[in-house]
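Researcher: Please translate sequence to structure tokens.
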Amino acid sequence: VVRVTGKAGENQGQTQISATPANILKCGTGSVAPVGVTLPLSSTTQMEQFEGMLVRFPQPLYVTEHFQLGRFGQVVLSADGRLAQPTNIAAPGAPAQAQAAANARNRIVLDDASQAQNTDPIIFARGGQPLSAGNTLRGGDSAEGIVEVLTFTWGGDQASPNAYRLRPIGALGGGANFAPTNPRPAGAPAV
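Model: Translation complete:
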């Protein structure tokens, strides 16, 4: 347990406290309980109140995007299944824009907390094990009870811009244990 006295401010959108070592006082020991957060959010700014805190998502979250998994070690998660492209389920114009806004309130980036690119091993796959040819991570796979620290930061490159991110892995008992809830079909469907 510490007490920090300083000036609160923002650095590239992330809340921080500017303090000197003399302004940090050790007060004893204790534990931190995660704060419950659920998706979808009521607004895209709702996460600001939890920034820098240990959070827990009690609901199942689903892999909705893993485009940056190999390069930046990040996976986009959403509640209630994978997010669809807005114009795939709504007409172009106002209906698709409303769906895009709903999608923005129903996503969070799970990040490996490394600024390095193309790391090996890639830590996100099924069963809490690293990614491999025999242990993949598919869109639609799910994880429950994710506990991580919520930050607002960039992913290490302009291709991975500022976003709310859950990091680092294993923070205070956290982690993501993905289950194969979207298994690869055994064969091609009859058409």
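Researcher: Any highlights?
Model: The mean pLDDT is 90.
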